[in-house]
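S.,

Sequence below, as promised.
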Amino acid sequence: MTGTDAALRSVGLADELVLLTPQSMRARRHPRAVAGIWIWETVLALLVSAPAAGLARAAWRGDANGDAPLWAQGGHALVDWLRHDNHGLSALLSSAEIVLVVGVVAGLVPMAGLLVTLTYATRERKAAGLARSIAGGLRAFPSMALLLVVAGLVQGLVVSGGLLLASAVGGWANAGMGEARAQQLAGVVGLIALALGSCVGVMHDLARAAVIRFKVKGLRALGLGVRTLRLSPASLWWSWAWRSLASLAPVLAVAGLAGHLGGRGGLALALLFLLHQAVVAARVALRASWLARAVRAVDGALRRVG
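The prediction came back faster than expected:
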């Protein structure tokens, strides 16, 4: 057995857990873990949407149709409400921002717990379970938080810098190439900036997987994420991209249907709720599938280098 093989077999999150084989690191093997993330995201959505629904009910309490006018074509009632109830809406937006920020930070724990479930099992080859997964997520939280800050800053700089460059290129090319060609060139530069930003996001997820797979700290995991992406950049980016694009399809479909069902009660409202939850579940499943792919990638990168 080589030194690399020994390292691969000996790494474990705790004494009770052992490393799964790469073939077993699949999201579809852990439906309960995926359901747990779905529940987490649903609770966050309720914390944001429940106050908004309460504010709308209070504003339209005297209307015989309830808040149905908010869904009327043209949006006149909605605009009027937004203009006259701006104080309540400002407080609502502030509380929603707090919930979302706290949710992003606190969400690192269930996300890391999902990675633990995807990567490890008990010695009896059973799923790691909720308690062990959350414990592993809590231990990984400092490293995950560091990665969130570093990758977020880098991604923000890449995207914002690229968009500024696109604007500058468009302005420079406008005089010599014409407005249409200048806009096309600026669009190309902007797309390149967005693509580079998405590569940073892929690297971020690979680094997250490395934290759990190798029990390393944030900066070390970041180096492993960069190395893994460098070994297979096109394959890994496409693995992330097609899942991201697939997760948008149900959102667009249900958004279009919601425009027709909005403002109705009874079965229409129940159907809209079920469709919304189906979209959330589909997006969570695709995200879990990508994280499993990321774990397999960082695991395979060590094997290739070793």
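The CA atoms of residues 70 and 77 lie 5 Å apart.

Coffee later?
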